[in-house]
Design a protein that fits this description.
Blueprint: E1 5-11, H1 15-26, E2 33-40, H2 46-53, E3 58-62, H3 67-82, E4 88-91, E5 96-98, H4 102-112, E6 117-124, E7 131-133, E8 136-139, E9 144-147, E10 164-165, E11 176-179, H5 180-186, H6 199-209, E12 214-224, H7 241-249, H8 257-267, H9 273-291, H10 294-319, E13 335-343, E14 352-358, E15 364-367, H11 372-381, H12 390-398, H13 403-409, E16 424-428, H14 434-441, E17 445-450, H15 453-462, E18 465-468, E19 481-487, H16 496-505, E20 507-518, H17 523-528, E21 542-543, H18 546-555, E22 559-566, H19 569-580, E23 587-588, E24 600-601, H20 606-613, H21 615-618, H22 623-630, E25 636-642
Parallel strand pairs: 1-2, 1-4, 2-3, 6-12, 16-17, 16-19, 17-18, 19-20, 23-24
Antiparallel strand pairs: 4-11, 5-12, 6-7, 6-11, 8-9, 10-12, 13-14, 14-15, 15-21, 20-25, 22-25
GO molecular function: methyltransferase activity
Organism: Candidatus Woesebacteria bacterium GW2011_GWC2_31_9
Pfam families: Glycos_transf_2 (PF00535), Methyltransf_23 (PF13489)
Length: 643
Amino acid sequence: MKNKVFIVIPVHNRINYTKKCLHSLEGQTYKNFEIIIVDDGSTDGTEKYIKNKYPFWTVLKENGDLWWTKSIHRGICYALNYSKKGDFILSLNNDCYAKKNYLENIINSSLKNKRSIVGSFVVDAKNPKKIIESGIKIDWSKHSITGVVNKFKDLDKHINSNNIIIQIDTLPGKGTLIPIEVVEKAGNFNYKRLPHYISDYEFFIRAKRYGFNLIVSIDSKLYNFSKATGTTHLANFKSSYKEVLHALFARKSKLNIVDYLNFILLSCPKKYLYINLKHFMSRILYFIFNLFPFCYVGLIVSKISLFFHNLPIVIKQLNKQSIGKYKCKICHGCTYLKHKGLFDDRHGYPKKFDIYKCFNCGFIQTQPQLSFEELSDIYTNYYPKRDADIDGIIDSAKNIPNKNTILKNGWSTTCHYQTKTGQKVLDVGCGTCQSLLEIKRFGGKAWGIDPDRNSREVAKKLKLNFHLGTIHDFNAKEKFFNLITVSQVLEHEADPLLFLLECKKYLNNSGKIILSFPNTGSLSQNIYGKKWIHWHIPYHLNHFNRKSFVTLAQKAELKIDSIKTVTPNLWTILQIKFTLNNIRRGQRDSMWDSGNKNTKIIKVSRKKQLLLKLIPLVNNLLFFNRIIDLLNMGDSFVVTLKK
């Protein structure tokens, strides 16, 4: 028993818990310990009780403004003045108690594991079959913080032969044994940035970075009155202003957003900082847009306003007898005319088209829809040709962006970026075949489909698996592919339901289909209206919102594994540029393609040229896009489907 243990216990009132905690420590089989109670302004007689009952233990009396972290910090500073090499510090909460062999077990666990930092195996005092703490695993790439073991039946999967849980990323502050050299090397608890919650997680993450090992000892069982700790989470949407503000900013709230932000900034590796700050923003937006009571009022007002705004339009359409002219492709409901007289404002095809929206599911379709022969003629004579630059394609495929770059720029609309090693991947609409080279660089086996003959020439020269045509005339073994990627193709398909059924046919039972396509519920569509770049008449035949696509997936008997919106930063810049150009029917916009003899190119005024030169500056402000994506109002859907 030569290793002395300094047990630091912060207390603030709750004398009954303190009595039970101290009584359990008094009877420990390991006797070489000293208890330091940091009494932060208790008014229930805690100090008097301890001095009368345990006069040989130290009480540090404070005025009530320390909170948990500074109390622990204060106790550790006191212990450092009296400690020597080989000693330990045990951080403990007063709402915990232990059996008599607790100290002996936790010290032996540290000594047998090269003086590791040892966490207690914490269970519920009222229900010992419930695990409260067993070490924490953190996956910063997914913003995931979880307990290593949450159920007793899973214990065998995580412990070694010595009843130790290993491979832990951080530990809680209740019942954790800290070798004295950890504090000397890694520093004390950070009370300035994290006064109460999460400071323990930050401290032990920091200690691990300094090379100290973290483990949990199953034999060092600690009993915790879990309901005595902190505030409860807001459980419903009927919270008052006071409750919401308390949850967001109160010092004793586990949801305190200031503490949470500081924890991310102090602990998160730099390469995952953007992802975790994005999740932090989503947490704030969750409260703002779902919990504040005024949102209900705003929602009702906006719906009433929208009704009266659309009423004249509906009456006008009824008078023109345009309702019922076309049936919805998805739910077969009635449609109404949304925009009239749209034309090809990119490549100069001169005919006019209308778009009709379904009253029921919100699906929008371009009308009249052209036959396959007419569309082929338009693509041949108006759509810009893609030259097969083999060297350029190979060079581009070598420069695959990392995950942070993809997230920052909104490039996750490129679906094949989600390829995993060993997967058999079919990319429908593979274009120049660059995607097939990139799939191979990700470690997948690539197949591509595209109707462009230039693509076939590229595939031949690069010896790639390629089919010239569409998914409808593709001939491969059924249930063959692990992953089918469809980037910005669904909107071009005449029959989207048949298209999904064809994709489903080639998907194995555990495989996934990942699609990206424009979102008609996006913020930019609501702002720009007819000038929204993703109408792309007449090449886009289908235009989906969330409800219409969910209906389509249900009809195809496919389950939605995930659905989110993403706005590529480039799209925002193109949208602003396009809005500044006053394109007339039959004219070609030079922003979209190169020379074409069938159309006239429009000239841009000097004033607009100056504005266009300022466009690159917008790229620095496009963090706004990520916020819009979190609100599910981004320009494109990225959807994962499975059988």
